Input
Amino acid sequence: MTSPNPSPEAPVRAPKAAADTSRPQVLPTAEGWEQARTVEGRPLLQFASPRVKQPPVHLADMSLAERAAKLKELGLPAFRAKQLSTHYFQHWTVDPERMSDLPKAGREELVAQMFPPLLTEVRRNRTDKGDTIKFLWRLFDGALVESVLMRYPGRITLCVSSQAGCGMNCPFCATGQAGLTRNMSTAEIVDQVVAANRAIAAGELGPKEHDEERVTNIVFMGMGEPLANYKRVMAALHRFVDSSPEGLGMSARNITVSTVGLVPAIRKLADEDLPVTFALSLHAPDDELRDELIPVNNRWKVDEALDAAYDYYRKTGRRVSIEYALIKDMNDHPWRADLLGKKLNQRGRGWVHVNPIPLNPTPGSIWTASDKSVEQEFIARLRATGVPCTLRDTRGKEIDGACGQLAAAES
Ligand code: SAH
Output
């Protein structure tokens, strides 16, 4: 509020413009990037998956009841559903040889029917230390997707893909620049986790901490916009949290769904009885910049996305994460840290924390991560507003397995 007659003692605030001009403002268009647009001139966003052939139905596409019904159709007793589920969700196996509790006659056919191969391994890259593995998978129709497995002290995280490509068109993200090929099926999403568990069990992810190790955390931060593939992602979440052997029996809080900010879908997610961790890829607190950085902002603005995130917290009691890739001279200005803090605090305290991450430059882009000192100042400014803030690491950079680098190039 401004007072008509400010007293000489009134604190003097630096005008915003002064802060703005002290640092350059680079925009995505600066390096010649052009937003793909519809004929009406709106940014091109692909919400609907192209109508292409879907992968064959797999056990992981179905709930336990649906599996039992399917087996009944095949003239088999319903309890076989539990046996097959145990092999897949507890022993990570689809090898008929290892399923000695099933009658030999017809076993191979049954396994072929319930477990059609969905992910064919094209390549596996490991970091020198062996604590990060990037998997490149070919799907039944030739589409390529990636997942990244990371060992941390006390936890193992898998970054999964939910779509082949992505329709959200974010200029700084390698996947976003490739466009959307198609939605992945529920089982294609789930099978990434089972495959990772198989690799862990085989001792491929560096020295084991204990014998029963498996993926403990899942983040939907691989390829794709999970909330644009809502139904299948939802079913996959159920497979992750359903108790064994129906599913993997994981804890919902250890699963993070990350989105560009599809507001109606965020609200729907909040109404599901599934308190997963929710992350919003904000990357800018002002619409002017976010309109360019996250094209979906042209549909749902910063404040609408933040309101939906806050309501997610209110409904689920789960603290929300804000993702913020720090891009040099683009979104890393101190005033933006202040504005972000202000917008978050306006809605409440203790409901959110911010995860800045240094930008991983994508091939062919001249954008770079913020200077270390700028990054530190951004974090300090944000913390000064009372918002908790932790810098995320950029694991897997050297194997092109870091955030935004998943492009599924074969070469
Ligand atoms: N579509 C979802 C999830 C996939 S991306 C989403 O946007 O949230 C997972 C995270 O990586 C998002 O926060 C995304 O903005 C971020 N990201 C994309 N490209 C990046 C890059 N080049 N450097 C750092 N983070 C990036």
